Amino acid sequence: MDSASPEPQANAPLAGSPSDFLKNIVGKKVKVRIGSGVDYHGQLTCLDGYMNVALEDAEEWANGRVTARYGDCFVRGNNGEYVCVLEQGLRLAFSLSQSVIRSRRLGWG
Amino acid sequence: MDQLANSTLAEPLDLVKLALGERVFIKLRGERTVTGILHAYDAHMNLVMSQAEESIHIVDVTDDGQALPPRVEKREVEMLFVRGDGVIMIAPAP
Fold first, then answer.
1. Mind listing the pLDDT tens digit for each residue in A31-66?
2. Which residues form the Sm domain (chain A) (predicted)?
3. What residues of A are in the B interface, CB distance below 8 Å?
């Protein structure tokens, strides 16, 4: 699997699809926020098309504190709100598509 | 993949596969957690567990809206089926 980080050109807009982004952040330290506002920080081991996520050396954050640590942890995709890269000062965040968030507001999610 | 341990992990579900037969800790919707031995799972994250202990984390509220300290209600179930849509997180039990 290619784990090279995306190298944005100085003034060029970021290209590539959301799934390209997700492929490129495998192996990096990420923050996964789930709907209830709890965050999971950890090294992204892998993810799949449902946005199920496997994290290594994961920390569970709630109310600004670490509430638990897990060596490995699986997060079911439907609970995810966004995945955010913490490494290397990258300030990229990938939100689940607006339609998913809208559908949650409508009570479908 | 830079780590050997990760080479068996092609997809997140493999992490659950590795936990088969082991004691796992599960977070569910509705402030519930379960620990138990994982016997089976599927793509929906439906789970079959044995020797399961469910903990329900409850915050009671008084009549005037004051939250009381959280309390935990526990129950043990010999064999448990968990419907996948309630699953938030699965980790090997510490």
1. 998 888 899 999 999 988 888 999 999 999 999 999
2. 17-89
3. 1, 3, 27, 34, 36, 40, 45-48, 52-54, 56, 58, 60, 70-76, 78-79
Contacts of B92 in chain A (CB under 8 A): 70-72
B contact test, residue of A53, A74, A78, A108 with most B CBs within 10 A: A74
Nearest to B56 by CA among B43, B68, B72, B37: B72
The architecture in CATH of the region A18-105 reads: Roll (2.30)
For residue B39, being part of any structural domain is answered with yes
How many domains does chain B contain in total?
Answer: 1
Q: Which residues contact B26 (CB under 8 A, 6 or more apart)?
A: B33, B34, B35, B36, B47, B49, B82, B87, B89, B90, B91
Query: Strand, helix or coil at B76?
Result: strand
d(CA B44, CA A59): 24
Domain encompassing residue B24 = 12-92
Q: Does residue B4 belong to any structural domain of this protein? A: no
Report the CATH number at residue B47. Answer: 2.30.30.100
